[in-house]
């Protein structure tokens, strides 16, 4: 007697319908290898756990708002040998999240700051952490919009509790008066409670220039720098290398057609 017609609706009722995806394969393996009923059941349950974890990971990545699929596996460390690979790989273990420590990533345009930050975000998502990646302009815009709708406290609380907040392009434009306060409030709420990654084209000594309120800026930066890991990316621009490669391909194609 084939139990599948009765089994399928029962599994769906129990929200275990994912088991159906591997049922046939696992059943065949169990027969071929002479597995016990318990061993067969264990394989099905492990498949279901893996499926659910993958689904949760995909949801965390989607909510994180990454610009693209940037991971450490796709980062070319050999392009700029001066990059501290050991430090970046250590950060990818997510120990800094347990420490509630900031990570500050600086370097010229095109040296991989956003890629590194998003790669750390992917690593955090794989380890079960909730992540949000946002350019600083968009972040400040969200807080300003929340003020306009009287939801500032709620938005600030949500951002403050996110396991890992990645703020991209700090210091790209000077803060406006209200933005000084908003950014300070957010950093103060997250200080020693949650980890924050910040990228910037500015050298660390220049970060104070982003604030027009120097007193508030000093207090904010004091919290950002306390116990922070500092990643300095130097060398050639990855964007330039892509442009050079595209130009070479264009020239090679033109020569072939002549």
From TrEMBL:
Occurrences of domain AAA+ ATPase (ranges): 99-230
The keyword Nuclease is annotated on this UniProt entry: no
Record bears the keyword GTP-binding: no
GO biological process: DNA replication
Name of one Pfam family that matches: IstB_IS21
Molecular functions per Gene Ontology: ATP binding
Keywords: ATP-binding, Nucleotide-binding
Protein family: Belongs to the IS21/IS1162 putative ATP-binding protein family.
NCBIfam families: IS21_help_AAA
Protein name: Transposase orfB
Source organism of the structure: Solidesulfovibrio magneticus (strain ATCC 700980 / DSM 13731 / RS-1)
Lineage of source species: Bacteria, Pseudomonadati, Thermodesulfobacteriota, Desulfovibrionia, Desulfovibrionales
């Amino acid at each position: 007697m084939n139990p599948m017609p009765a089994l399928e609706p029962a599994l769906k009722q129990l929200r275990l319908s994912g088991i159906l995806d591997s049922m046939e394969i696992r059943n065949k393996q169990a027969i071929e290898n002479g597995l016990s009923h318990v061993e067969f059941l264990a394989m099905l349950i492990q498949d279901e756990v893996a499926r659910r974890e993958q689904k949760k990971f995909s949801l965390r990545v989607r909510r994180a708002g990454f610009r693209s699929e940037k991971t450490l596996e796709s980062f070319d460390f050999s392009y700029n040998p001066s990059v501290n690979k050991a430090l970046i790989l250590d950060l990818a273990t997510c120990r800094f999240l347990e420490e509630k420590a900031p990570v500050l990533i600086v370097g010229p345009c095109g040296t991989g700051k956003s890629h590194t930050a998003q790669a750390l975000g992917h690593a955090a998502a794989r380890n079960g952490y909730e992540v949000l990646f946002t350019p600083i302009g968009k972040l400040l815009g969200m807080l300003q919009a929340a003020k306009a709708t009287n939801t500032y406290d709620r938005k600030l609380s949500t951002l403050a509790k996110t396991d890992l907040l990645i703020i991209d392009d700090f210091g790209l434009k000077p803060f406006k008066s209200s933005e000084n306060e908003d950014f300070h409030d957010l950093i103060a709420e997250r200080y020693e409670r949650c980890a924050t990654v910040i990228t910037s084209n500015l050298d660390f000594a220049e970060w104070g220039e982003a604030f027009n309120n120097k007193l508030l800026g000093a207090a904010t930066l004091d919290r950002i720098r306390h116990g922070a890991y500092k990643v300095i990316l130097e060398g050639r621009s990855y964007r330039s290398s892509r442009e050079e490669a595209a130009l070479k391909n264009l020239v090679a194609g033109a020569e072939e057609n002549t």
